[in-house]
Amino acid sequence: MKLPRIIIAISIIVVLFGGIAASKALGVWATSASRNISGGQGNQNEASSGEEHDSLEISGSTTIGQALEMGVPEEVLIQYFGDIGDRNAVIKDLSAKYGLSFGKVKSALNIYIDSE
To answer: Radius of gyration over alpha carbons of the chain, in Å?
Structure first.
């Protein structure tokens, strides 16, 4: 009587993990964490530097200096953050410091970036 239970248990495990392996191989199984991990840190930096010229937009790690290079006018940044003397200051951190919604600031600043 125990033999059929063992066969059923092994079959369930094989089907479960086999299905996961097959869906990963086909690209169907991809969670947000697995997408970030699969590229690796080194590959992500190389890819982002190449994509930077194709699609520019403000992200969570964009600095004041980068925003200026992307074409956001200095006056607009001053309007949101006042003093922008520190070009290495991260826009997301400044938004939190001044009690602004980063999503709203990001949307407003992205309007000034040329998307070619």
So the answer is: 23
**Span 100-116, pLDDT tens digits:** 999 999 888 888 887 54
The closest alpha carbon to 84, from 70, 98, 64, belongs to 64
Q: How far apart are CA 67 and CA 91, in angstroms?
A: 9
Environment class of residue 77 by beta-carbon count within 10 Å: exposed (0-12), middle (13-18) or buried (19+)?
buried
User: Is the pTM here over 0.70, yes or no?
Assistant: no
Can you give the residue ranges of every domain in the chain? 2-51, 64-110
Cα 6 from Cα 111, distance rounded (Å):
62
pLDDT digits (tens, 9 = 90+) for 9-37: 999 999 998 888 888 888 776 665 444 44
